[in-house]
Design a protein that fits this description.
With 72 residues, the chain is mainly alpha-helical. It has helices at 3-35, 41-50, 57-71.
Length: 72
């Protein structure tokens, strides 16, 4: 076998592995984020408290709605 055939096979294998790895990791990460959303009501309330404010239920709902709207 010529050396350039070996080189082409190696490059093709690396490209295929990179593409497959990308799609598999993207799929896994999407599933992870669906099961464990980054921010929920409790964390929003805690952020308000850290800023020295006591949030009303309306404010918490507004922040959640705003975040969901920006997510899409």
């Amino acid at each position: 076998m010529e050396w350039y055939f070996v080189l082409l096979i190696a490059i093709g294998t690396l490209l295929l592995g990179g593409v497959l790895g990308f799609f598999i990791s993207r799929s896994w990460f999407k599933k992870y984020l669906e099961k464990n959303p980054p921010i929920d009501e409790r964390s929003i309330r805690e952020m308000f408290r850290q800023m020295g404010r006591t949030p009303s239920e309306k404010q918490v709902r507004q922040v959640l709605a705003s975040m969901k709207q920006n997510q899409k």
